[in-house]
Amino acid sequence: MVQLSRICFRKYGNFVDNLRLYVRGGSGGMGLPRLGGQGGNGGDVWVVATKNMTLKRIKDKYPHKRFVGGAGANSRVRALKGERGKDKEILAPVGITVTTDDGKIVGDLNTEGDRLMVVKGGKGGSFHSFFEPSKGPTKHIRLDLKLIADLGLVGFPNAGKSSLLTAMSNATPQIASYAFTTLKPEIGKLMYEDYKQISVADLPGLIEGAHINKGMGHKFLKHVERTKQLLFVVDVCGFQLASKTHFRSAFEAVQLLTKELELYKEELVSKPALLVVNKMDLPDAEDKLEELKEQLQNPDEFSHLLPDDMMPKSCITFRHIVPVSAATGFGVDRLKSCIRKSLDEDAVMETKAIHQDRLQALRSHSH
Question: What's this model's pTM, rounded to 2 decimal places?
């Protein structure tokens, strides 16, 4: 057991989702005063979204994490206009947000081939600068990776998210049963008969107090932002994280998960959500499921079960509540079709909204 946890932790230690880099534009080339020659501009530095790239690779390949544009050529008698310096490209994974050191967003790279200039090269020397070139500006930037998936699994450790993902898809996460199980985001693909694929991200387990950054809380919540919908997973019989913490029923688990998301970023709670009630193979599961459904229909009547500061401001209305057993496979196919239905409905709505906007735009042009 100890052995396994060590492997998993080591595996997590290698997962990098934020990298700070030093970037500098190339210096401009010298001008040539007696012939009015202009030095070449320095090269720019770009970040380019590339397939199969990871931040860990960048870190390993460029331990100094310095990227500098090429210098512009000096003006010479034979080449009065100095050649421009070469641009430097930083190949980065898809799904990156580039920010400044103080967190201002410079831009997003969401699809392969997206490019973003992070620093411009210095100007070559010319008549206006008394033929003196300028140095390339320098800055620090951060590459922040957010996984992009259709669905994000949200649940406390041991709710059975990893085994659910395995049952639903062809991902084979490493599963261990200690309080903090998924230590590296796993993305599973759900395949459908008509070849449609839906990606599901199982993110490191949330722990009560994740918004205060306990465990990997914040790292986890950051990834939830980019998923289209949320899939809450709770153990029908409730759970207890450790001997010192309170036992929580399935209803309380739903409220605590909602509260965690709300405290991190209120908009997360407005994402469409489905609820999976796992471990239906356990004794008394049916009764507990009925109890949970009743509590979710009248959450205010049961809010006394949790201290005030643990109840979310608004309760989530789930589109579907699906009982499953990841262990026996019960309910898994129904869950897959509910997920598909929910995502398809949203896609239709989105297309309608885009058409509406286009019509509006056409109408306003014609008036």
Answer: 0.63
